[in-house]
Design goal:
Structural class: mainly alpha
Largest sheet: none
Number of helices: 6
Helix content: 55-70%
Shape: globular
Radius of gyration: 16 Å
Number of strands: 0
Order of helices and strands: HHHHHH
Length: 174
């Protein structure tokens, strides 16, 4: 297992699981790199007209990790801090609440969620069906689908992270 902030290119060869997890870990590390070295003000900065922040992305993706690998795949109850949130009052609480969080705490929340996700996926076959069903179609999905969805989720938000980070201090690219 690699350091969470060490970005290693996905393997060019290997079995399907190695390549899927390689791409997911690459995108996880990319987000961490985009948020690295920023203080609370930097993590709370937006790029108009969006209200997205890098801190919000860290917290949102920590929630998404827990949601898919713990709650959805295995059917576990929500963990802290997610279980105590009134999601009906603020469906975007993960994004909004990050502005008042300590940068170290945000990074740790994301790191911990990634570690839990890796542990929850370890030894589970890619064809294993989720315990919960996908909204709207009332069907379980495979772990393969979850991993592919997570790659898509990180890739999309990493594009946002590129723009936000460049607007903060000019840091661009990889």
């Amino acid at each position: 297992m690699t350091n969470l902030r060490e970005r290693i290119h996905p393997p060019l060869r290997g079995d399907e699981a190695d390549q899927l997890y390689g791409f997911l870990d690459y995108h996880r590390a990319t987000l961490q790199r985009k948020a690295a070295g920023l203080d609370a003000a930097g993590l709370a900065q937006t790029l108009q007209p969006s209200s997205m922040t890098l801190g919000g992305m860290l917290k949102h993706l920590a929630f998404v990790e827990d949601n898919w690998f713990s709650l959805f795949l295995h059917g576990h109850e929500r963990a802290a801090p997610w279980r105590d949130v009134d999601w009906k009052a603020d469906p975007d609480w993960d994004w909004h609440s990050a502005a008042s969080d300590d940068p170290k705490a945000l990074r740790a929340l994301h790191d911990d969620a990634v570690v839990r996700s890796r542990e929850l996926a370890a030894g589970v076959g890619l064809d294993t069906l989720s315990v919960r069903r996908l909204h709207g179609v009332d069907q379980p999905v495979t772990l393969r689908w979850i991993v592919l969805h997570m790659i898509e989720e990180y890739a999309r938000h990493n594009g946002h992270a590129d723009l936000i980070r460049e607007s903060i201090d000019g840091v661009v690219g990889e």
